[in-house]
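Researcher: Please generate the 3D structure of the following complex. Treat every line as part of one assembly.
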Amino acid sequence: MHSQPQPQPKAVVLLSGGLDSTTALAIARAEGFAPHALTVHYGQRHARELDSAARVARAFGVAQHVTSTIDLRQFGGSALTAEIDVPRGRSPDAIAAGIPITYVPARNTIFLSLALGYAESLGALDIFIGVNAIDYSGYPDCRPEFIESFEQTANLATRAGVEGPRPIRIHAPLIHMTKAQIIRRGIELGVDYALTTSCYDPAPDATACGECDACLLRLKGFAEAGLPDPIRYQRPPLL
Amino acid sequence: MHSQPQPQPKAVVLLSGGLDSTTALAIARAEGFAPHALTVHYGQRHARELDSAARVARAFGVAQHVTSTIDLRQFGGSALTAEIDVPRGRSPDAIAAGIPITYVPARNTIFLSLALGYAESLGALDIFIGVNAIDYSGYPDCRPEFIESFEQTANLATRAGVEGPRPIRIHAPLIHMTKAQIIRRGIELGVDYALTTSCYDPAPDATACGECDACLLRLKGFAEAGLPDPIRYQRPPLL
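Model: Done. Output below.
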């Protein structure tokens, strides 16, 4: 007698199309989940992320890819959503000091809430988010204490949390990794980082600026990992 | 010498256009806040709530009324968003037992997250939500322990929580009130309940069905308060 193969448990993966969320997707798959990708189009300037997210989702053959649209520009207050210049050419220390102007109010709380609604509708008890607290650009909603608190809230908020077979889990597998460690782990798992986009302010032809915080953290990560970054930049990287 | 009048602190009030959220708005105003109303259009069948929300916001002269659109039907799984018949003519005990089919996955978590983003953009530290745990229709995200947990998460998630002058507060002033108590309090504060809508499935002319859980809880509340419900119903109320 053969035992029935167990179906893979479903997981929702928040997928921006950037380096971190793509690596989180690869980790979810490697851990045996059937990933369902959720991309949130929130009025970000860098809407080219959406193209990257679609390319990554296709490359991974995810079970489903939902793009949710919510216009956070209605609330104002961020470089990603309003007409403020993003900082350029900052040192790693300057990037790490304080909460930057690119902070979007409550962004990860909103993203995780939507992922929670999607997960519960799917019958999934696992949500993956690619935040990291090391090279994390100073965002409060990338810290472990935020993720733990949201997980507790999720279990109080939902039918799944109240009646489910086990608690809902928010996975933040990159949270204690440096950018270099994230890249090395992704390469081990076969991630093609040429599909990803990190730049806050890419050119019309989608090449990265090479000078915003996101580009600088990415370039530093590849440099420290001793690997070439396969995406194109508008000018030779500063690093 | 005259002291400068203090500006009223801003608060975000989640406003569906129903009886509860309208009363929460009246309470926020009575407590000295300058209310900013946030209505979420999430693909609910009863989109007539949106008209009620606009009428209520106008009647209260709120400082700003933002309507955010997010299509939760993309995730599936609820009578409010998918093609499922809403229950009719249920007894109060039946309504109170278990989580009903009208439950929308993670709805209040999503609503509060959006309110948090709006509040932080405004510089507000106070959010009002009209949930109640007595006549609450069995939703897990109407319980006090959910509200407390979300408040904790909000303070970890945001710049305002990390750097603000005092913690962010989630106000749920109706949470321990019966529907009759809510209505009496609203009447004391001058609320015109003719502006509000509660029905899950109103007729094309916007009259309430009188038989869904929301109508039955509302009618029971007015009956217990000894007051007439000023809205129109499709047929004589069962109560």
